């Protein structure tokens, strides 16, 4: 790399600064997506369709789950990561990981950054999977690498 940098009239340090700046700009292009858009995260909305209609999503994008904390007029919601596609299809929460509690969706919402190139299976874990199964509160996403043309 240093040989190429010298041939282009750029020192090694200047080349390194350019690469670091380019990397920071590439990471800076990540989007913030509110799950469900204006609908937010609630019972009875088809999030699988929403995810399909709002694809693709990319690595380092931030997903924001907004939902009301439990009170006398709303049901509690949460966010779980399901382990695999089979668990997703069945809304099987036995080996799922809770990533947001019933109180974390208030205000600016719960933020989840997709840092790895892998499928993510999200679901509401309330009522022992009832919100996932009947309320359609689940979706899957496979973030794509973001390609930049310089």
From TrEMBL:
PROSITE patterns: PHYTOCYANIN (PS51485). GO terms for molecular function: electron transfer activity. Residues 31-145 form the Phytocyanin domain. InterPro entries: Cupredoxin (IPR008972), Phytocyanin_dom (IPR003245). This is Phytocyanin domain-containing protein.
